[in-house]
Amino acid sequence: MNRQAQAVIMLLFGGAILKASLSDLYLRYVKEGLRPFLIGAGILLVAAAVLTLWYELRGRTDRHDDGHGHHHEPRVGWLLLLPVLGLLLVAPPALGSYAAGQSGTVLTAPGDSDYPALPAGDPVDVGLLDYASRAVFDGGRSLTGRTVRLTGFVTPGPDGEPMLARMVVSCCAADGRPIKVGLDGDTRVTAAPDTWVQVVGVWTNRVAKDPVNQAEVPYLQVTGWQEITAPKQQYE
């Protein structure tokens, strides 16, 4: 692979990053707040590739080679085409029920267990991690008497019953782990795994153990639910 080929691959790679960053595709890989950094990285790669091509085509590089004007660069560089093709041609889904079933719930004890009151109005939209933390570490005090609405995807529980889950990421999908909430009550959620739903219900003191890591999994007493389109930002 000579330098011109390297520059073309770098140009494609930068273009693929920009394509993903300027749409919602990047949200399947990283958190929303990293978008400016991805755009900046894509622009730098494209600029570097263009400058390299311009420099090469004007013949300003030193050509110490076998006399034919070609550089002997490592062929392993062609492997860079794989992530480029992946970004340009493949749109993988966000992490879902399979990943959730392989990892234990991410719920861990916070440093500060003083939870503020929920906003006025019922039902109130609450994130899964926020609900689980309040239910377990606050004993449900800030949830008592309130109707909440949780959004997540359906994942099978250890007993085969559906649970609600959402992936929590610190930086990117590679470190994603699920937060899980069990579904209790007479109203059964019958949606298939990986279906996104909004579930309305009230706090219940039922708690189970995640068999993967033995962390506590709180439950919600369901009063109603509906299928929804997967949200733009699927990670918490």
Automatic annotation (TrEMBL):
Membrane listed as a keyword: yes
Q: Which residues form the signal peptide?
A: none
Give the record's keywords alphabetically: Membrane, Transmembrane, Transmembrane helix
Q: Which domain of life is it from?
A: Bacteria
User: Per the UniProt record, which residue ranges are transmembrane?
Assistant: 33-55, 76-95
What are the residue boundaries of the DUF1980 domain, all occurrences included? 6-90, 144-235
The answer, when asked if Transmembrane helix is one of the entry's keywords, is yes
Q: What is this protein called?
A: Putative repeat protein (TIGR03943 family)
Organism in which the protein naturally occurs: Actinoplanes digitatis
